[in-house]
Every structure is written in C-alpha cells, then in structure tokens.
C-alpha cells in the first residue's frame, strides 16, 4: 500500500510541476520538487530491495529493509521536512559551553554521515571556550523526522579540563529541533514583524562586516525574536530569519495545544534541567544512555563522533 501511495503522489506532483504557473511561488515549488525527488528515491529503494532479495544479497537486503521499515514510523506532517537544530549551553558555566560545542560537532558529524547538508545561521561564542548557543539548518530527506526526538536536555559527566584539580564535573546543554515551515502554512501579517539590521560579529580584522548584513526579526504578538548573521547578504539572512521565526511560531502553537490536552487529562511535567533525555558519562566509567528508550553503549568516543544511528532508531521505534 505504501508503495502505491508513493506512486500516486509522484504522478500528482509530476503533473503539477508541468503546469505553466508552477514556479510562480519558487519556495513552494522547490519544496514540492524536493518531495518529488524523495518519493522517487523511495520507489528506487523498493526496487533495490527486490533485487537484493532475488540475488540473495542478505546483508544488503536486511540493511535496506531496516531503513525502509523506519520510514513507515515517520508519517507525521513534517517528518520529511528539513530541520532547524539549536543548541544552548545550560548549567555548568565554561564546562557547559564547551559541552554545547561538543554536541555541535557530534551533530555535524552525524549530518555528514547521512549525506545531508547543514548551514550555521547563528552562533554566540563563549569568552573562554565553547559556545553559548548556535542554530543549524539541516537539509536532507526526513531530517526533521530523524532528529525530532533529539530535542531535550543532554547531560555530560567528565573530569574537568578547565581546572587544575581535574575534578569531576556535570554539565548540561539543551537541544531544540524544529521543522522548516513554509510561509504559506502560517498566516503572518507584515505589520506584525519588527525588522532590524545590524553588523554581524566576526573574528576581527578584515573579516568584520562593514555593513549591516545581519538580521533580527521580532514577532510583536508573541514576542519571539530570531536572528541570522552568518550569510554575507542581508536578503539571505532575512530569508533564513523568517524561516526560523515561522518554525518558532509553529512550535509555540504546538506547545499551547499540548498544554490544553495535558490540562484536560490532568497531566503535568515540569520543564526543568532535571528532565534530561540522555546521559553521557566519561568518568569514572564510559557510558552513553538514553533515559527514554534505555538504549546504551560504552563506545562514547564513537557517539561523540556522530554515530547516533542506533539511538535515533530506538527513539523512532519507541517514541514515534
């Protein structure tokens, strides 16, 4: 059934893309072409699966079958969408800021291993080491579906490299994951948006921006503020900031609805640092454990180098 539905979607998108006014809305057209390419890839994967089975290529067959089975769990409206991944240092001072940068590297390596693309759109460096926060746009099929359950508090326990006594230190960082939302899906009025241009921060010298290319947007009804400063063009930064704003407005609405449902059901869960989703212990033993799925591994080095597939697979099967 899944295969026939994909074929039907492909035919519909192909017919739509042939219409004279298809590219009138370039952003919407690009999204639909990306969806078309993804669906065609799924058809190709099913054909490969059939060929592997017929040729007795057991290992290749099982690996591809597992990949396709996972996608059946990713049927949410935005699971196929690109993602916005944000990192924020939490409790722990310099340690936490260093931890946030370690997580940034971990996710960048994971993104690279998936064959996806990423773009850093905002980053606030810490004074001594690490980062206070950063935002990454992740471009790839099912990027949001694969990453959405990574959202939450990540806890690190290790011997501190930032004090002479090398005492054991616990640090926290918060990961946020949003789907990239198209403007057509959320009604926004121009008068609701407050625009500000400013000079983006740089490493100094000749690289400091001489013109105001960075962009800050504020959604006046909600007070949500977003920035983009990594692009050289103000137009590009404004486009990225608008995409981020749309996603944050969407997230706010989802949280509002979830609170209403929880109120009806009588459920309550405090949004505190104590609600970590994963623990990374580097001392006195080596262990990474997801506290929701109970999946764990002692190969901490591999995980911090971007090998998150097993964790994400466990999340998709249990949490989706």
Describe the protein in words.
There is one protein chain. The chain is an alpha+beta fold. It has 3 domains: 71 residues, no CATH class; 152 residues, Alpha-Beta Plaits, CATH 3.30.70.1660; 66 residues, Double Stranded RNA Binding Domain, CATH 3.30.160.20. It has 8 helices and 11 strands. The strands form 2 sheets. Strands 2-3-1-5-4-9-10-11 form an 8-stranded mixed β-sheet, with helices on both faces. A 3-stranded antiparallel β-sheet has the order 6-7-8, covered by helices on one side. Strand 10 and strand 11 form a beta hairpin. It is globular. The two termini are 20 Å apart. About 3% of the residues have low confidence.
Beta content: 15-25%
Task: Write the CATH architecture name of the largest domain.
Answer: 2-Layer Sandwich
Radius of gyration: 22 Å
- CATH fold-level label of the largest domain: Alpha-Beta Plaits
Largest sheet: 8 strands, mixed
> How would the global form be characterised?
globular
Number of strands: 11
Helix amount: 40-55%
Which structural class matches the secondary elements?
alpha+beta
Number of H- or I-type helical stretches: 8
Point out poorly predicted stretches: 203-208, 268-272
Distance between the termini: 20 Å
Order of helices and strands: HHHEHEEHEEEEEHEEEHH
Number of separate structural domains? 3
Overall pLDDT: 85
- CATH class bucket of the largest domain: Alpha Beta
Order of strands, main sheet, comes to 2-3-1-5-4-9-10-11
